Amino acid sequence: MSAAGQKLFIGGEWVEPDGGHYEVVNPADESVVGLAPEASRDQVYEAAAAARDAFDDWSRTTPEARAAVLDRAADIIQRESGPYAELARAETGATTGTARGMQVAVGVSRFRRYAKGALEPVEEGLPPQVNEAGPMGRGGVFGALAGRRPVGVVTCITSYNNPWANPAGKVAPALAMGNTVVVKPAPQDPLSVYRMAEALAEAGAPPGVVNVVSGSRTEVGEAAVDSPDVDMVSFTGSTAVGRRIGEVCGRAMKRQLLELGGKGAAVVFDDADLDSAVAGIGTTFAFYSGQICTAPTRVLVQRGVYGPLVEKLTGYLGFMKVGDPAVQGTVVGPVISAAHRDRIESYVELGKKEGARLVAGGERPDFARGFYVAPTLFADCTNDMRVVREEIFGPVVVVVPFDDEEEGVALANDSDYGLIDYVWSGDAARAFRVARRLRAGGVGINTVGRNMEAPFGGFKQSGVGRDVGSYALHAYSELQAIVWPGG
């Protein structure tokens, strides 16, 4: 990137932003990582128009040609993974291991997955149907097939917690299906997404197929949603913003894929492997400093093991070294910004006022610079507390006791959210029985691991639609039926 700052990527060209540049700040030490471009509303519309112009040709390329572009992009990202991971770490405050393994490496794997995905069948023959003669015409045998077709121009609005895996999880399946995209990265860490655009351009994506526009002002995202050239919006972020996007899309009947907030319940029964449960719950503190919507932040514990679990979780926090994410051994890095740190701290104060027992954390770590929050554990919580009901999006875990299975399920489901819940139990039959009753898009049984072919998305306020694996290819396509008379 030149000293003058990053340019926008519109129609295959690097374009000076109308709104100048703003600073991207390293959350770990508050240094300036680089200068990000501030697009105007007109430039966002230009990006969408470029995507519209490119759509017809790109949608009619062969699946093999689209697969080749995605595979080459994965090769290029792999080749540049060292500097790309350094940039991601600087922009997001993720630890070096997370930036390499869970950001850039996952980005590579998603491009590889959807290079294969471009070759998946898109048409399915349906059983023939015998129709009697009637008002609809002569009788006969009618064949039919269901085919998936690209939606058109897709706006991809990405989250700040993972500027590689999240955009790749949108852009790669959208392109594999023959769509063109306008990517609007999170304002806090957009520079990584411009590197992704460079990789796709080098890989042979034709001009206009991929466009990237960024900005710190809300009007950039608004324009990316309300542009008349946009057919679909794929968004990862807060439920509040998701609602606004849904309203705008609804007016024009634009397709939506919304992955929104979460307040994951971890239901821990008295026959659970507590060490496994604590290790899973502990990922809330470690991954992205709690800035992850799938985290088990709401721990519901059966009373028989309530004390031991709180004790083990408190002990686990002793290994949660807070500090510079570039330093080996750091587990918990900073949160994304001073404003977000202040928001998390206000929730910690609120938890104290609501009567929750502060077991660990609660004080700002003693660093001269950077946006650090101590891993925080609240016990003796009740389900009506705001710290239990609202998404904090930081390294804060709340613990609520319950008596029996019915109460555990009821407490877990008493939430506005329903993204991913978790069950820990030594009784497999009970674990699966409870999992099926949880109102969440995903349930982990005795694990926080993910199967990357399983559908991902939320019930209730946690979103609309599903992606990941082949489900993402379905999300970025429209179903078309073709019917014909038999001989």
From TrEMBL:
The keyword Cytoplasm does not apply. Keywords: Oxidoreductase. InterPro entries: Ald_DH/histidinol_DH (IPR016161), Ald_DH_C (IPR016163), Ald_DH_CS_CYS (IPR016160), Ald_DH_N (IPR016162), Aldehyde_DH_dom (IPR015590). Residues 14-481 form the Aldehyde dehydrogenase domain. It comes from the Bacteria. It holds the Pfam family Aldedh. The keyword Oxidoreductase applies. This is Aldehyde dehydrogenase family protein. The lineage of its organism: Bacteria, Bacillati, Actinomycetota, Actinomycetes, Kitasatosporales.
